[in-house]
Batch of 2 targets.
Target 1
Amino acid sequence: MIIKDVLCPFCGCLCDDLTVEVENNKVVDVKHACKIGTSKIMGHDRIKAPMMRDDKNGEFREVSYDEAINESAKILANSKRPLLYGWASGVCEMMKKGVLLNEEVGGIIDNTASVCHGPSALGVHEKGLPTGTLGQFANRTDLVVFWGCNPVQAHPRHMSRYSVFNKGFFTTKGRKSRKVVVFDVRKTDTAEMADEYVQVNPGEDYMVISALRAVVADKADVIPDSVGGVPKEKLVELGEAMKGAKYGMVYFGMGLTQSRGKYKNIDNAVSLITELNAHGKHSILPMRGHYNVTGFGQVCAWETGFANAVDMSRGIPYYNPGETCSNDLLMREEIDSAMIIAGDAGAHFPAQSIARMSKVPVIQVDPFHNPTTEMANIVIPTKVSGVELEGTAYRMDSVSLRMRKLVDVDFPSDEEVLDKIIAKVREIKGASS
Amino acid sequence: MSEMLIKNATVYDPINNINGDMMDIAVKDGKIVDSVGGSAQTIDAGGRLVYPGGVDAHTHIAGSKVNVGRIMRPDDSRLNNKPRTKVTRPRTGYTVPNVYSMGYGYAEMGYTTAFEAAVPILKARHTHEELEEIPIIDKAGLTLFGSNWMVMDAIREDDLDRLAAYVAWGLLASRGWGIKIVNPGGGEAWGFGKNVSGLDDPVPNFEVTPRQIVKQLAEANEKLNLPHSIHLHCNNLGKPGNYETTLATFDVCKDIKSKRDRQSLHVTHVQFNAWGGNHWGDFESKSEPIADYLNKNDFLTIDMGQLVFGSATTMTADGPVQYANARLLKARWSNGDVELEDSSGVTPLEYHPQSYIHGIMWAIGLELALLTKDPWQVLMTTDHPNGGPYVNYPMVMTMLMSQKRREKEMAKIAELTFERTSIAGIDRELDWYDIAIKTRAAHAKVQGIIELGKGHLGVGADADIAIYDIKPDETDATMEFDKVEAAFRHAAYTIKGGEIVVKDGEITAVPKGRTYWVKATAPADGHERMMEDLKMKFKKYYSVNMANYMVQDEYVEHPVVFETGYQ
């Protein structure tokens, strides 16, 4: 069976033009996807059954779903500061259930943006986000800047579908329609393909952005000979090129959000874009990682008013990054249990946070074995969304699309598992109140 | 079989010409009926005020730009917070409430239906995801067509059948209710940071004018026999002197004949479009010529877009106006261009009574409502959350009912306001019947949902009923405005589809609302030409495949489909 127009459950590009061949309920071929997307859809080692262990150094034993779910509910219901983290590799339908579970347990719900584009959200709180949909950029941009991101490796089809090589209504010559500039601390493969590579000293992006703002404001005389390792002449040339663009686009990644300056870098970059709009059209877009990390921010915002790091311990949604993000809480040793779902804290959190997680009960809900499994007490395998389950995901530009189901499996969905945990938590809390 | 009897109600139901009659209302299985049996649940209204459930024909309650507002404004999400109860989820937000608060807030005021006024097709799925999560109220969305490439190409080639076919397809794709036009052509021009300046300023690269876009979409609207007319946000919104463009835009539709018992043009939030002066320095009200036009012509309706002092989050598909606002106010700015379709922007702001510009804007909204003779022609809205959040409707209602209440507000407002407006000299005071028109009956008529049983209490109508803790016979609304406002803020009962959802101002049940959308048949030959063009545009210019574009049934769980079409 050939299934067309399949969406890819890998990165924030959420490509929707894949063709997948399924034989005997198994994916045998994937066309048009990048290598990483293909690998994800083709599948690899799954966690076969729910598992539990009492001692984190001990061996897992296989258990029933009911046992694993009931035990998870018990842990969460009896915790004072449970953390519900992850969410990025699942569909929006399960995220809604996550927000509800967080209300039931009075915990903290946070997603992978916490260690990725969380600072971008803070920049948005400060300055907003002048952006658009990827097709708008594909049809119009004549100047493309990649700042602290490397789509060749992280978003392999981004440049061909949306940003660099594609042809559009006003960009009929594809790659030749655009000038491409890369700002990065190292010469990535993306930088190799650019017209200009600008090497910025590590942690000095903020100053470089400020210098560009000075050029755009016709205040180049205040710029010293070199800023952030970039010569003044180069900054003036680039600032003027931005100012002269018909449609300039900045895509940025964790090189900007997680280096020195963090959200202030984004605040400054958004200011640059806002000011540039007095000259031509300009937009900016974070290069989101997981295929539906954007979706979590959307769902959490419409459900709670806040896009992530929502603390329900006061009975109303409370949000204060620096206080209510996963690592703030883990490092203060407040967290007394954690559910890691559709995300991998074990691989991405700092050592101090991992140390705390190693001391508290950890529940993992995920189709795959990963570093979080090593810290888990309970492991609950679920369906792979977008391969084994239909549902909604948001592309990096906040366009939502419906993912398709390609094969049938016996695993429950994340949503089903959460539904059961919620029911059990209500039962426990109801009995104790 | 659930039955209910509301006894001793003082009923105002303008669609059925009921003006303060003391009567009983019988309800069976969610509908109004002639009579019910003796075992029916009984509510004794005790002479209190009873209206049909409120209808809001123009509000921004769901979708991409609303969520951008939430994400950009954690400061707003900290306001108005309430913990969950046994029936409700936690509530946050004042200008951009979370989905739960959105539904509860409307229901508490006795409202049961609301129209989201701007849905880009590409982002309609998101809009429906939020609409589904808004509890209690029924909803619909108006689909944006005013800067759409498919629309402009069909208009340039003067192919009305192809245009109508695309509108029908766009409504299906977005599960939309009607044609929304925002700053016609301006959204496309904003694609390269430009705007259009008036009705005859050609849209760059598309060789059509805003005048053609308005006229031909209005014609396509009638060709498809849609329940609502075109819903238009004029060019030059937010610019001093724009009333001339507004009046000229009215004239564009003067000769369009409506196929239904409704207007052929609805112009929205006209407060923002009735501005005189050449710049902010000589900014003044031009509500009088607008009201004068309405008084002489019955083919069009408008809504107020009333300003409410305090915090607002402006959000509109008018991308350029939001950039201008953000620069002027040095405010946060989010922009949201939608490929091939439209633009949008979101900017928070604060309306200050001591700013004469804000004072004049405040006055214009009320002037439009009070100077226009026919109450059916001017709907009460705040263009939530552009003029202010919808939770302030009760205050606006009392402003319309009481000159004293207006005077109280005027005492706070910059004096220059009164040199440049006529509000201080207006003594008209609307009555209970007028308010029923302005907050439910006219909204239902303008949107074409009377025949679906909305906005009235006739036999067969939806049992959407608001009972307010006030006795019209004993209450002088012109003097006791605080009491009236308190009653409107917290309905004694809100009944939605025969179920009590609010009692004594508190939410008691949270049923799921329904979503209305229009399925229109298009002229066959136009459809073929349209599909050819559409497939080409998806192949070459859209960033999603056509097969993944249309809103799937899963996103509209409680649909009500209105079938109509080309005849």
Target 2
Amino acid sequence: MEKAVTKKTLVRKLSGFVPLYLMMIPGLLYLFINNYLPMTGLVVAFKNYNARKGIFGSDFVGFKNFEYLFKTSDGWVITRNTILYNFAFIVINTVLAVIVAILLSELTSKVRTRFYQSIILLPFLISSVIVSYLVFAFLSAENGFLNNTILAALGIEPVAWYNEPKYWPFILIIVSAWKSVGYSCIIYLATIIGIDRGYYEAAELEGAGKLKQIWYITLPLLKPVIILLTMLALGRIFYSDFGLFYQVPQNQGALYPTTNTIDTYVYRGLLQLGNISMSAAAGLYQSVVGFILVMGSNLLVRRLDKDSAIF
Amino acid sequence: MSKETKVFQFTAHCIMTILSVLALIPIVLLAVSSFTDNDYLLKNGYSFFPGKLSTGAYTYLLQEGEAIARAYGISFFVTIAGTVLSIIITTLLSYPLARADLPGRNVFSFFVFFTLLFNGGLVPTYLMYTGVFGIKNSIWALIIPGLLLNAYNVLLVRSYFVTGVPTEILEAARIDGASEFATFRRIALPMAKPIVATIALFVGIAYWNDWNNGYIYLTTRTDLFSIQNLLNRMIQNIQFLTSNSAASNNIQEGLAKIPSATVRMAIAVTGILPIVIVYPFIQSNFVKGITLGGVKG
């Protein structure tokens, strides 16, 4: 008797939530299709994919695809490129973003602060296809601004930029900084603005100049945020900005040694070379190592500052 | 103002001015190039101060611009439809997740959250969408894969509902006899306007700038190309033509009629233009959105 009553109230209680569950259906369904279903498709990495047999019908080959990926130099090159580029981006973009944020916060004219901020943020909104056009205007071998104007003025022979892999680490680092410093300085700026002005007033009374104030007040108070954002970025070090690495070097084969990352490798394997199993193997390698790194960095962040951890 | 402060202010302004110029320079070069005479450009290269200006590229675009107008239309359609759909789905999912009393709330939250940690990646996603859902070469390819719903946005909106929409107000509405859906639509959603606006902005820009989906899924239906896809095809095609020009004089001749170098830049300008036009209006909201998202990862 008692059981029946609780069951009835449970049903009544749940039925009140039916509209809420219904509201969630489109979103949950989308995540199921867009994110969860493809996870099952990861088995392709262990198969010799055959379009006729489909994902689940293709022959199982175990770790052959992975073996092959690392037997050729491909696996190492793409891992090295992905990690080194991300590492360079983290260091350089963070240093620049912190400097810009400090400068912006110290300017007394708020109108001009906003003006500068708007301008350096603008590149962030431009698609990587258009960024590739902008870079092309500078680097095109025949018509580029660098070859025709700068190098010509200096009396240096024109450079075939799109055939010379050795220049691309610098080019990509510059493009990445151009695109993202305006974005990443915003969080630092918000933190600096939140600092109690009393610290600075006290320092001024003690006779500390601007540079001393920055060194002894702003930077130490900014440190936790810098560490935090760096940790989170390190967690994503196995993923690269596909648009940057694919569009900006314009998919030039000569540049692969210094521009190929895991993401571009997976893409080319799938759509240009038709090597679906290898491509899937590289993708799974990225997903798994990426997952471990995200978890690891989050664990560290949690230790430092519980509220800032993603979970 | 002390002397040191003055020197500091001056130096800071100088550095920021230089950085602002550096940020704008590539865009200026693009714009100036699009207004340069094509022959002059081919001879002297892209330049900030071309000897000969011309609107030839734009007249060419206006005359032969059917494909471009079409791509523009597709881009606008996809951006608006995608953003509206995305906002509907995102808020509908976030609202119940914000309700502390919802049975199974943690399970659903984890279901959403886990997609941020692990994903199948490009290959299985591509195989599913093309093989199972047949999305290839349809307009859905530009709207659905990847962009429609982002777990991160769901979590942002959810926390806004939790902190910004008091439970008492929702309770009161329900006591007055409003249904769950009416409470959501008439009370919770209007109160969440700031976060909805911010997310719409980010989603909208992502749709406008997306070239990836079209590049992957539109293999034969080039008539569905967005402006980004068109631009992408143009840079490849002209390159292809010039690299093979020695082999074929016909291509050389055909190419000579198009102000190819400047037209390319002119289309890129039209691709940036909508962003530059709306930028002053969205800028402050955009900055707010970054701060909001940045503090938490």
